[in-house]
Amino acid sequence: MNDRAAKSSAATEPASVEIEIATRRLMAALDSLESAVERRKEADRDEDELASRIQALGSDRSRLADELDGALVKARKLERANRDISERLDAAIGTIRSVLEAEEGS
């Protein structure tokens, strides 16, 4: 019986070593999986942040386009007013010159 007990003990030793090795491999695989999940979560957060930034840029672009349109309309109005004032000043200068010339001739 002692031989059997010794053989049984010797047989269980390699099995327990194999179980310990398998357990270590399983723990390493679980650690790798956990790291991969964390990297994926970080990538998802980065992707969400990027999507938020793109949306904010789109909003800013729309706002700036509206402001630019308003500025262009205002610039066109100012150009028209400037042309009108310039024409009126030219007419007034012409009138003043003709009056002055008429007075000098008399």
* Helical/strand content category: mainly alpha
Following the backbone from N to C, one meets helices and strands in this order, namely H
Mean pLDDT: 90
Sheet with the most strands, sense and barrel status = none
- How much of the sequence is in beta strands? under 5%
The percent of residues in helical segments reads over 70%
Number of helices: 1
Task: Count the beta strands.
Answer: 0
Low-confidence stretches: none
Distance between the termini: 154 Å
Rg result: 45 Å
Q: How would you describe the shape? A: rod-shaped
What report would you give on this structure?
The protein has 106 residues and is mostly helical. The protein is built from 1 helix and no strands. The protein is rod-shaped and about 135 Å long. It starts with a helix and ends with a helix. The relative contact order is 0.03. The mean pLDDT is 90.
